[in-house]
Amino acid sequence: MIILSKVLKESNQFKILAIKVAAKRTLDNALLLIRKFITTCDKYSEDMDFSLLAPSQDFDFTQYFQPIVDQFAMVGREVEIKKKDKKNFCKVESAFLKDNTDVYDITFQTEKSIKIKIEVDTQPPLKFLTEQKLLLLPQSFMTRCFTLPDLFAGKMHALVYRAWKNRVKGRDWYDFEWYVRHNTPLDFPHLRERALQFNQEDITKESFLEKLNNRLSTADINQVKADVLPFIHNPKDLDIWSNDYFLQLAQMIRFE
Question: How many CA atoms lie within 13 A of 255 on its CB side?
């Protein structure tokens, strides 16, 4: 039942993305961040993250609401879209969320309600590259997304700086492993730009690796595994996971 729920959630995510592209108000001003849709990663996605191509104070995500509601109504799905009040976020939720990131919940009324969170960064860190990717479901369409090296940079920034205290986000670790195993280079200029904007730190490659190694060596690996377990197909993929395993992965990072 848990797996079925996650499959339904991801199928709805694809549908949402296709609707946005089909609408004339397409993704000209926004690009997809979640690399689940553009890679072969086996981890389920919990939400959808978007970013503008350039900072804007005027971007209005609500323009997409009605096309999404109308399209799902055509297949018998009732959809409710709400903008979330970040004042009500707990410290864990808000610790890694910028003031200029808008958050929305899309709720599907099925046998059991399925909720998808959408985040839109209206003041994105720059120095990134994008590319067009073809997706074939629910119909063929093109969408703009970060290149893999820039997605890798965003993920490593999250892994190093995310303030989860005792709640380690193992999904960051899973993605880190995926990028290294697929020989993806890390776009350091974009990572540096993220650290400057989010954390007011001007990092070097050496200082970044020092921070990364500290995070990898001190985290509770059992908590790391426990977080990612509900999101993957094969639990045995985690058997090799240890602090030393990830420290060795860190030695394999290639910068570009």
Answer: 12
Question: What does the alpha-carbon distance between residue 212 and residue 218 come to, in Å, rounded to a whole number?
Answer: 10
Q: Are 180 and 245 in contact (CB under 8 A)?
A: no
Give bridge partners of residue 32 from the DSSP assignment. Answer: 50, 145
What are the E-state strand segments in the chain? Answer: 30-32, 47-52, 78-83, 101-109, 114-121, 130-135, 141-146
Cβ atoms 246, 177 nearer than 8 A: yes
| Span 60-83, average pLDDT | 78
**What angle do the packed helices 148-161 and 170-181 form, to 10 degrees?**
140
Asked if the bond preceding 138 is cis, omega within 30° of 0, the reply is yes
Q: What is the DSSP string of 212-241?
A: HHHHHHHS-HHHHHHHHGGG-S-GGGGTT-
Q: Distances in Å between the alpha carbon of 19 and those of 32, 52, 138, 140, 171?
A: 14, 18, 10, 11, 27
| pLDDT (mean) for 183-192 | 98
**Kind of pairing between the strands at 114-121 and 47-52:** parallel
Lowest mean pLDDT: which of 95-104, 129-138, 184-193, 247-256? 95-104
Instruction: List the structure tokens of 118.
Output: 């959408």
Which of 78-82, 102-106, 160-164, 248-252 has the lowest average pLDDT?
102-106
For 130-142, write each residue's pLDDT tens digit: 888 887 766 777 7
φ, ψ for residue 121, nearest 5 deg? -90, 110
Asked if pLDDT for residue 151 goes beyond 60, the answer is: yes
Cα–Cα distance for residue pair 215/39, rounded to 1 Å: 26
